[in-house]
Structures are given as structure tokens and as C-alpha cells.
Amino acid sequence: MKVLKIVPEKCTGCLRCELACSYMQTGAFQPAKSVIRVSPYEGHTSYAPYTCTQCAEGWCMTACPVGAITITPAGAKDVVDDRCVGCKLCTIACPYGTIFYDHDTRKAFKCDLCGGAPACAEACPTAAIVYEETTTADWLADFAVERSARLLASGAR
Amino acid sequence: MAARHLVIGAGTAGLNCIRTIREEDGGASEIVLVAAERPYSRMVLPYYLDRSIAESHVFTATAATLAAWKVKTHIGRKAASLNPQANALTLDDGTTLEYDDCLIATGSRAVKAPVPGADSPGVHSFWTLEQARAVIAGIAPGSHVVMVGAGFIAFTILNSILSLGARLTIVEIAPRILPRMVDDKGAALVDAWLKKHGVKILTGVTLVKIDDARGKKRLRLKKGGDLLADLVVMATGIKPNLEWLQGSGIRINHGILVDDHLRSSVPNLYAAGDVAEGKDGVTGAPVVHAIEPTAMEHGRVVGANMAGRDVAYRGSLNMNIVEVCGLDVASFGAWDRPEAEAFTALRSDRSAYRKLCWTGDRLTGAVIIGRAADVWTTNDVGMLKGLVQTGGRLGAWKEHLRRNPFDVKPAFIASRTTARLLPDTTLGRPSRAPEFPTTVTR
Asked: Given an 8 Å threshold on Cβ–Cβ distance, is B422 in contact with A151?
């Protein structure tokens, strides 16, 4: 299956992925509704995007009491809006924190891999997000450990 | 001869068991389902109450689905008695059903406060579809609704009652709201938020009786100050449906005691959901977690084992989330152990609260409250669940979270929580989409 591979060392923090994602998801440029989210490290000198891994368990999918989360042909777990009642159970079932509740539509929303052509990967100018055939992995941990060493040592925010 | 599986109860646990058996065996076995009601989802009744969904939306496995899954049904029938020696269940109409293995998933029912008038017309529970219909019929714009009980169940229908244009008063016997879902500080924040949104809350109040006055229900309170209501909802607790098992010889404590394969003291009898007392994944202790996710996971694990696989359950995680008037309130794991080390942080200006509870450097419980429209809140809900569920050692990140209890994300990522989670599946294989199997192959 093709997955979103994150190469955090290449991320410049430009946030084009968030803009592209929110535009694909909602039709408006509003990063607050992006399902890929860029976080700063090392006092805003480096950055890394974070999004759904389309995990094998599908915690959101199995938790849904009305079967409103399904698997798309691209292999993404996706919310079927007509079925979702907005109970938020998926948002506490997902242990990655990558399914959200939209206060305006009253539905859950998450990464659906844009039907197999992810806008975030297309928008990324540095190939920090690539959509390729591989096994999903913990793309960020090594980077985060390294880039947060000083923060932890100093006790500074 | 094909295995004969008997499933008692068509709630979340029972249906997940059936689905999983069919995912595993493609239709090779015999499945018989006994259900008191046509299968529906209790979780979505609040959205039926506020009319954001039609009644048809609440039903889960339809007759057509059950037929496609090759399930023989006894809908509208209740289990009356079980004879484990004979592997036989007797129904309330006298029918006897024999089985090779059986799942007991009879769920729980609402119980009303034991006061005179609790069973009079106009005093409702909100638990079953039938009860939901009665509440819907009784609320009109401008109605005054009094809710007795300020627990999770009450709070799940709070938004719905308000959105129907009713005025709402909550009466709680405990000194504070949400006693089993958040701690005192969290409860105070939610209390203030609700009062700001026009909900009247009376805590530490004892209800003496309910009678009728001037065409309304009158709630007599111990310290005076009667309340007049157009409709009363009693959300004063639930009780597992276990009485029918008296004399069966199955070991029962608060629920049916089950091992890590959800087997009761009788090996071919499984229990799941609200009637099961099984392992708490955080504390390891036996516990009844009467929540939807536990019923779902229990049901899936039982289904896999009934289908011949050997699947041990990791244990259930206590968790709840409810949104009231735009405020998210959630808790995970062991958040209320008084002896546990805990960090708390309150940001009144953002109506945000966190409580992080520790065992050594492992996060074992959490409370999170914040505005639902605030990305700051919603980002962290799932990650806190992941940290509690995996129980990984956080090392120096614990001190970071002491100083910055709102800065969960870097701790989650740098402690390699994703790597711990990725291989973790409940059944030892990827989950299937809910549409599968729409038809069985054999």
C-alpha cells in the first residue's frame, strides 16, 4: 500500500501541506482544519508534519458505533459523512490523536489520502512528505528525540 | 458437525462478536442470536433525541444483514435461564436452544432513584430506544426539563435537550457533577461553564419524592425549594442484566468474572460488555467497564476465540468523552486514584484543564477539558489516550509535562509512542471495514 512517508529533516515549516490539506478537506484555506499538522522543534528552528498512519487496527473505525468509518480503495480509513452522528467516540479511541471533530459540520474528519493523490505530498516543496509504496513506520521519533534533547536538558519551554 | 455459537444480546458486544466470527469463518458455523430488541446503537440515541438523525439511523444490523451473515434470530425474546451442564438456554417463551459455545452479552438497564413517584408518568429513563421515543414525545420548546443525576449518561443528552428549546435543571445528590468521570477541579470548571450557558445546577440535593401539581411534575427536595417540571429524566445509574443467571453456577462478582479470553468460570461460556468483569489494561485488576469501546473490543475478542483462534485481550481502558455546550470533557484510565502522583493545570481564560496521573514515569490516567472548537484541546485527546494505553516510560518527558502539562505532543512523539502502537492490533491482524462481510461465502 502507498503511504505518507514523512522525512522530518527536510521540513522547513512552510505549512503549505496544511493549506493544501485544509483546502482539499473543506474547500477553504484554513490550517485549523488540516489533518496534517506541523509542529515546531528546537525553539522554532526545525519542524515536522504529523498525520494519520492509516494503522492496521483502525481504532477509529472499530470504535464507531454506526459503522461510519470505512476503508477506501486507496487503503485509507475515511469517515462517511452521512453515517457519522458526531459522537466523538473515534476521537478518544484513536491513540495517535489523528482523527478530529469539526465543530461546524458536527462530524469527525481525518486523513483520507485524498483518494490516492494526497494534496500535502503534492504541495510539499522539499519532499518532506512523500506518497510511496512502503510500510508505514514511526517517521518522527528519531528526529524528535534529537531535536528535543536540549529542551529536556535545559528545562526551558 | 459445524460449531453452534449462541449469542445472547444484540448490542455492541453481541454484534461485534457475530461480525468477527463471520470475518474469520466465512459462514462455516451456525450462529443463533437472541435479542430482546431489534438491534440499534445506544450511543446515537442523543442524536435521535435532538432530531439530527432519523429513527432509521439508529438501527445497526438489519434483518437483511443478519440473514446475509447466516444468523438465525430470536428477536423480541429474552433469555430466561441457562443450564451450563446441558449447554442449553431457555427463552422466555419456553424455547430451548442448545449450543457448543455461548456469549452472554445482555448489557445493562437504567435504574431510577428509589423515591416515591419515580415510576409515575412523566418520569423517564433515557437508555433504550423505547425510552428515547417517550422523552422525544414529552419535550417541546419552552418545556422545563429536570434531570436527576449529573453523570456521564445525563451529560450525553444535555445538548440535545437544550437544542430542542427546553430549559434544563440538573439535580445531583453528590456535592458535585460528573463524580465518576472527572475530578473536583474539572467538575468545577464544567459546572461554571454550564451555568454560564443557562443550565441550572443543584448539587448536594436530596430528592424526597415526585408528585403531580398543576399538570406538572413536582420534585420535592429535602432542603425545600420544590421544582416544577414538564418532564423528568432520571439518569441515576445503570445495572447489569444478570439476575436471569441466578442458579447457573457461573461465577459473578460485580459482573461475570472472565479470563483474558473473556471466558467465564464455565469455559464454553463467554461474557462481554456491561455484564463482564474483566481485566483493566492499566491496573490489571478485574473491573466492569460499562462503556462502548470495551463492549466492542470484548465482542471482537470473543468472536475470534469462538471461531477457533487463540486471542488474548490486552485489557480494557476506561475512557469517556462528552461535549456540553461546546466544552469537551474527557478522561482516560486511572485518573482518580488518590494516592497517584498527579500534575494539574487550569487555564481559566481558555476554560482548559488537564490532569495527568502517574505510576513512576508512566502516564496511567488523564483528564482533559477544553473548548471543542479549540484545536489546542482536540489535538491532545487522542495522544493522551495513546500514552495511557501504551503505558510506555516517559523518562525526562515526565518533568517536561510537570512544567508544561499542555505540551503533550512532543512527549508523545519523542517517547516513540507511534512505534509502540503500530504493531498493536486487538485480533493479531488488520481490522476489516464495517461493510465486511456483507455476505458470507459458504
From this structure: no
